[in-house]
Each structure stands twice: as structure tokens, then as C-alpha cells.
Amino acid sequence: MPGFEVFGSEENKHLKDVMDSGVLMRYGFDGMRNGHWKALEFEKAFAHRMQTDHCQLVSSGTAALTVALASAGIGAGDEVIMPTFTFVASFESIMALGAVPVLVDIDDTLTLDPKAVKAAITDKTRCVMPVHMCGSMADLDALKAICDEHQLILLEDACQALGGTYHGKPLGSVGNLGCFSFDFVKTITCGEGGAVITNNENYKINADRYQDHGHDHIGNDRGAEGHPHLGYNFRISELHAAVGLGQLSRLDEILAIQQKHYTEMRNALGQVNGISFRRVPEGGVENYSFLNFYLPSAQLAKEAHTALLEAGVDGCFYWFDNSWHYINGWQHLKDLQGLGKMPQEVQDGIQDLHSADFSSSDHWMGRNISMLIKLGWDEEELLNRAKKASSILEGILQKDRV
Ligand SMILES: *Cc1c(COP(=O)(O)O)cnc(C)c1O
User: Taking all residues of the chain, what is their mean pLDDT, rounded to a whole number?
Assistant: First the structure.
């Protein structure tokens, strides 16, 4: 996944443009900026690459989710359906607006189970937020049908799946809104940054204002601009946008390397009797940032994970026990542990996460191992790694069979 493996001259060129002019902010200072508008240029290029009408850059992926929800008018007490397996940003962004996260099970795609989504809909539901974890997508056709039937907003969190597609369309462009992160470990990075994409002009206008204190951005005197509604500061800087612009030009090269490395690794592990792979919904193409596979039981997955790490096969994640990406580790959410008082709507509306039954999620998460696909592996490294991982898994599964 990591774009940080491939920095080079493109990023430097754009950065130098910004540093030479000294204008580090994306708005104003027209006379000083030598014609450089890196954030604007990145937005245009990204919208084009994602085949959508609009892109709004912001300061992080978490900011992108917050701005996207706000731009669709989601606020206090509204329910947003999200998966049990995701990054903490999902519920952080929802709760930042006083909205209520409704956690539901994932299935063998490691993303939202459409049946669980359907069962969770109430008259307060406003939005369904699938998270395309580890490079592959939710069953978007099924989710779209549910959203259409109930008039809900479909917001794709594509932070971990940049470059993947669904029936030929870029992930993030299928729903009403799509969000991306360019933090330091994502497919492309600008240090910290994020993006919202949409074909809805109203959402774009709202996002543009909300991420910059509600400024309407009419005219060229910031001090005289109108504020049709309240906002916040989720702006990206020209420095970050400059790095992102350089990285974006490498995206196809990054994806091609990931696909090659993923395919070799998958072919090797596919020979191991007892290993199965995550289901990719029909019509979907992964971005190949992770290889996700299942062992026959949670006990074996745990053993295999430990053995892989001990043997030096790094970059393998057992998310089930990880404190950041799965409900098991979110004690602070279960306890609604804010620094101050949480919004009343959240306190009243949130399900009891201490007692909720997520055994279907546990079933898949407990058996899953995710292997990060690195760009920097050379042929020999890749071959050795594939051999080593296969023989470790073979050993553990064989022992289990006797
Ligand atoms: C990284 C990530 C985010 C948040 O991105 P930041 O830029 O780190 O705030 C949100 N959702 C998912 C699935 C992510 O992986």
C-alpha cells in the first residue's frame, strides 16, 4: 500500500514551486504565487482520475469523512450504518457531528454484510458507510439497492482501496460520496491529507465551504466573503497538495507493482491445502494493497500469525486482536469515553456495544490474516517470502490434520 516507498523528483518539483513562491496556503495571495495552485490542480487531476465531477481536498481521511457527512446534511441524532471492521475514523467522524454510529456485521468480503445493513435500518437512518478495507470492496450493488429503496446516502470509505474498481468504475465513485486518505501509509501519500469525491454539485459546494469555516469563496477578498453556514478548518496546505500531486502521477505504476507482487504471493499461498481467500464481490477488482486469507479456525490463524512474525515474514496483521481496526479493541467507544460530555443524541441513540452480538464478524475476523503488499520487494525477496510463508502455513495445517 505505501506510497512512501516511492518518493522522487515529481514530488520535489511541485514542492519547489511552492517553496519558491512562499505561498503555503491554498487560498489567496494571487500576486505572489507565480501561478501555482497545487491544491486546485490536485483536485482537478484527482476528480479526472476518479471519473467524478468534483473533488474536495482536505487535511486527512478522517476530515474527508467528516466533511462528506456534513456536506450531505447529516447531523445530531442521524444514524449512520458502519462495519465492525474498519479504522476508528469511521465512528470518530460520525460522532464529531453528533450523529450516531450503528455498527453491523461484516461477511466473508471483510466489509459490510448487506443483510445486516438491511436489518439495522430505522426511521433515523440517513447514511450507509461501507469501508473498503485492505484493498477490496463491499458488495456495492446490493448496498446501492438498499440505499435506493430507503432513500439513504451511500458514502464509500475508499481510504484503503484507492485504484480498485467495481464494474469498471473507480472505488469511491460508485456511491453518492467517496472518501480517501493520503496519510503516510496509504497507497499514495502527501504526509497528511484526504479527499472527498462526488457528482453532486450541492455536496461539493457544501464541502468547499464546510472545510474552510463556512467561507463561500466568492470574490477574492477573504475578509469580505459571506458565510452561509457554520464550518470548521479542515483545509489542506499547498505543501501537502504539492506532494500529493507528485504521488498521483505514480499511482498507476504503484498499482501495477502491487498487482504483480500480490499475484505471485497469492499463487504460492493458493497451493497450501486449507488456505482460502477473501471473497471479492462480482465485478470488483482489488487495488492489491493487501493479500487477505483465511485459516480454518481462529486458533490456527492465531498460531499462523505468530509463526509468520517469528520467522521474519513481516507486515502480517491479525486484526482480530488489534486495538485499532476491530470492535474487540474499541473499549473507549464501548464506554463512550469522551474527554467531556458526549452529545445527548449519541448517548441516547447508540446501541449497547458491550452486549451486542457480532459473532458473524468474529467468525471471519478470527480466521483472517492480512499480508501487506510492499512495492520494494525484489524478485528474490518475493520468492523467498512466498516460499517461507507457504511452508509455515503448510506446517501448521499439516500438524492440525494429524
Ligand atoms: C487511514 C484511514 C482513514 C483515515 O485517514 P487519516 O488520513 O489517517 O485520517 C479512514 N478510513 C480508513 C479505512 C483508513 O484506512
Answer: 96
The reported pTM is 0.97
Strand residue runs (E) in 22-161: 54-58, 79-83, 100-104, 125-128, 153-157
Q: How far is the centre of ligand 1, averaged over its atoms, from the C-alpha of 90 (Å)? A: 8
Q: What CA dihedral angle connects 173, 179, 181 and 187, to 10 degrees?
A: -20
Say if ligand 1 is within 6 A of residue 156 CB. Answer: no
List pLDDT tens digits, range 207-225: 999 999 999 999 888 888 9
- Given a contact cutoff of 8 angstroms between Cβ atoms, the answer to whether 343 and 98 are in contact is yes
* Residue type at position 385: R
Nearest to 37 by CA among 249, 237, 246: 237
Q: Are strands 100-104 and 153-157 parallel, antiparallel or unpaired?
A: unpaired
Question: Positive or negative, the Cα torsion across 172, 174, 175, 176?
Answer: positive
CB 159 near ligand 1, within 6 Å: yes
Cell of 58: 482536505
Ligand 1 centroid–CA 172 distance in Å is: 14
Rounded CA separation 359/105 (Å): 8
> Given this model, what pLDDT does residue 1 score?
56
What domains are defined for the chain?
Answer: 3-250 (3.40.640.10), 252-401 (3.90.1150.10)
Centre a 10 Å sphere on the Cβ of residue 277 and count the other Cβ atoms it contains.
14
Q: Is 387 a catalytic residue?
A: no
Q: How far apart are CA 397 and CA 272, in angstroms?
A: 9
